[in-house]
């Protein structure tokens, strides 16, 4: 039960209502041997430092002979910069307005028309289909049957982030399953897209990779990187943001009445409190002060606690637990805080993620009779270090059948 403040807006008091906080607290800790960084200033300093190297997802253990074949996440320095430069064009604010917004709106309209015909849906199915289509269009994965593609992408992403366990047999089995899923994904989705773009290039990432001479494996690696980074994360965030808005009528009304900037400010506040990525890691090749008593030597690894940094009053100002869309302006912040990381590896898809969430939720909450019938179950995905929300059943008035 929420307590209403004088403003009539429950989200504006400082009660800690974060839904994923207790679960994240139980499940989140730095990698073995890494120092825990909770403060926003030190977190930003480390993430922005030229002496910092990616330290997450086993980055210390992998090497790539050819940077072209390495996912952008695992690169550092010049190779990283070069790869980021090449793909930024597809994720910019201009690309969103000129190109992706139409995909977001069309896909949303289609999903919600079906929702109204059925009268019920699982929110996670809608948000995942949207996330797959939006990132798919950015990449250029558009030359296979939509529904079958969504199923294959779900399977290939599940296999690529699954945990192999300790035994050699389970590792062997998982590698086999991964190779199989990636093979199917390549044959059914990536190859037709490549073929079509060799004949007629378009303004998408696969056309660009081809013009740069990328090999087929390199293109598949890019598709899987963007799939994991952009599809799985956005699916969860849309459900979380919808949950907040379903629950809080005043916040929902404010969201629906706001212009696009105001809507994004509300979404960024929800993400600040419920960041999908809980912790990211860096190895820092310079001394670091501010963890423990004295400076730590070069070469140490740090776990950046995004959740803690996002409620650090030195950057949020007073009442860090309130959903306060005016906060960022007051604090002279962008509103992203640490939710999308910071520095060279900061999320290149952050504007895409926020816009697609905004477009979808603005339309969802205008569907007559839309109701959250069942609050989502929450679990933890240890491979991604993120919450997962499932069985978010929504209903609405059924549209008359034509
Ligand atoms: C709500 C949704 C999203 C969240 C919360 C999120 C969060 C993050 C975070 C925290 C990082 C930094 C990782 C690190 O520094 O170690 C990151 C990196 C990345 N994100 Fe996102 N992301 C989201 C959506 C997207 C989308 C839609 C795309 C693509 C269209 C995307 C593509 C990427 C890529 C490629 C990287 C790696 C960048 C690099 O290492 O240089 N993300 N994301």
Observed structural traits:
402 residues, alpha+beta, Cytochrome p450, 4-stranded mixed sheet, 3-stranded antiparallel sheet, 15 helices, globular, disordered N terminus, binds protoporphyrin IX containing FE
Spatial arrangement of strands, main beta sheet: 1-5-4-2
Overall CATH architecture: Orthogonal Bundle
Small-molecule components bound: protoporphyrin IX containing FE
Radius of gyration from CA coordinates: 21 Å
- Beta fraction: 5-15%
Number of strands: 9
CATH superfamily: Cytochrome P450
Uncertain regions: pLDDT < 50 for 5+ in a row? Answer: 1-7
What does the model show?
By secondary structure, this protein is an alpha+beta fold. β7 and β8 form a beta hairpin. It starts with 20 loop residues before the first helix and ends in a 7-residue tail after the last strand. It is 52% helix and 9% strand. It has a single domain, classed as Cytochrome p450, CATH 1.10.630. The strands form 3 sheets. The protein has a 4-stranded mixed beta sheet. A 3-stranded antiparallel beta sheet has the order 3-9-6. It has a two-stranded antiparallel ribbon with strand order 7-8. The chain is globular. The chain contains 15 helices and 9 strands. The structure holds protoporphyrin IX containing FE. Protoporphyrin IX containing FE (HEM) binds next to α5, α9 and α15.
Structural topology:
Blueprint: H1 21-27, E1 35-37, H2 40-48, E2 52-54, H3 77-88, H4 93-118, E3 120-122, H5 123-139, H6 146-161, H7 168-199, H8 205-211, H9 216-247, H10 249-257, H11 260-273, E4 279-284, E5 300-305, H12 306-309, H13 313-316, H14 327-331, H15 350-364, E6 371-374, E7 377-381, E8 386-390, E9 393-395
Parallel strand pairs: 1-5
Antiparallel strand pairs: 2-4, 3-9, 4-5, 6-9, 7-8
Helix pairs in contact: 4-5, 4-15, 5-9, 5-15, 6-7, 6-9, 7-9, 9-10, 9-15, 11-15
This protein binds protoporphyrin IX containing FE (HEM).
The site of protoporphyrin IX containing FE has 27 residues, from helix 5, helix 9 and helix 15.
